[in-house]
Amino acid sequence: MKTLFLLTLIATGICTAFAQEGIDDILGRIEQSNTTLAAIRAVADAEKTGNKTGLLPPDPEVEFNYLWGNPSAIGNRTDFAILQSFDFPTAYTYRSQIATLKDEQAELEYLRQRNELFHEARMLLAGLTYHNALMAEYTIRLQHAVRMAGNYKKMLDAGEGNILDFNKAMVNRLSLASELENLEIERNMLLAGLERLNGGNAVEFSDSTFAELPLTAGFEQWVEQAGMKNPALLLLKQEVAVSKKQAQLNKALSLPKFHAGYMSEKIVGEQFQGITAGVSIPLWESKNTVKYARASAQASASRYADLYFQYYNEIKNLYQKAVALQSSTTEYQARLQEYSNRALLDKALAAGQISLSEYLLELAVYYQSANNLLEMKYNALVAWYTLQRYSQD
Questions:
Q1: What is the DSSP string of 16-84?
Q2: What class has domain 2-391?
């Protein structure tokens, strides 16, 4: 029964064949199914619609006056007028340009929040890759432990072994089974996190391979390209452009406003009709508005410069960390393969050159080294995914 339990545990672990989905496929599904992103998309579309308001002149005004004369002998008077007001012509050009920039801002805000969601998903996927690799490793270890415990059981039954060695083999097997079970629980929690991001739809991800990270030593070129695709950075850059256009718009709005139209007046036996026109005199209504707009543009430019400085230094540290982790992982893996005593330990135990206690102790050292290698690969992948948070459009 114990053997059946252990084999069942192995079967329900990482060895089960799942329908594999690539990372890009999963992210694409999340973008389509995530309820938060759907809400953000709706807000962005609403803002784009709102940006199209206020671009045209105000509605025309129609006036009609009917005045009774007193005394009645002078008759009645009828007035009729149609008036159209409008700002200085360049104001409409700037309004249209600002609307276009704000449309782009709405889209960039959507991309920024999508990037944050994708970053969360990538962290879960990195954790799944790590747990899948650990579970594959522990499955092999458990299979080895099951065979070893079975061999010591046969030796004990044949009177060739001792109960102490059998118990050690059983404890080793049970310990590995417990570790594998705990890894399965943690893996299911990560899958549940992906399911939540995917709008409640289940996601299967069984990849356990840590691919070589696409990093080079050319950081300056990389960071320049990344900056052109960073939504948060582009969003603030767009804000600078909007502020400059707003300053130009405020300047245009401080210029004279106009109105023109048609007007007629009728009295008994007489009628007057013709055009009417007028112009406002800009004295105090727009006081300090241009100055304020220019100050706001300068403030936006300062915020952008500060954000880029923070972005550059943070991403530089992350990039260097990812390169260093990848280099040390490659070196560690090569040295582990070169100095591994795994095969020699099996031969020494079979030949009776070392005791089971010594064998298990040395094997634990090797297992810990293998775990360290997987953890290093996981940390390098996390560093790379964190870089993608800043460099994806």
A1: S------HHHHHHHHHHH-HHHHHHHHHHHHHHHHHTTT-SPPPPEEEEEEE--SSGGG--EEEEEEEE
A2: mainly alpha
C-alpha to C-alpha distance for 247 and 3, rounded to whole angstroms:
78
For residues 326 and 380, the answer to whether their CB atoms sit within 8 Å is: yes
SS3 call for 270:
strand
Alpha-carbon distance of 213 to 381, in angstroms, equals: 7
What confidence category does residue 15 fall into, taking pLDDT thresholds of 50, 70 and 90? very low
User: Mapping DSSP to helix (H, G, I), strand (E, B) and coil, where does residue 85 land?
Assistant: strand
Task: Judge whether residue 64 has pLDDT over 80.
Answer: yes
Strand partners, 270: 267
The confidence score (pLDDT) of residue 3 equals: 42
Percent of the chain whose pLDDT exceeds 90: 29
Q: What does the pLDDT average to over 143-153? A: 90
Count of beta carbons in the 10 Å neighbourhood of residue 245: 22
147: nearest Cα among 181, 165, 173: 173
Digit-coded pLDDT (tens) for 199-237: 999 988 989 988 888 776 577 877 777 777 788 888 888
- Give the domain ranges of the chain: 2-391
Rounded Cα distance, 103 and 207, in Å: 39
C-alpha count within 13 angstroms, C-beta hemisphere, residue 89: 0
Structure tokens at 9: 């545990």
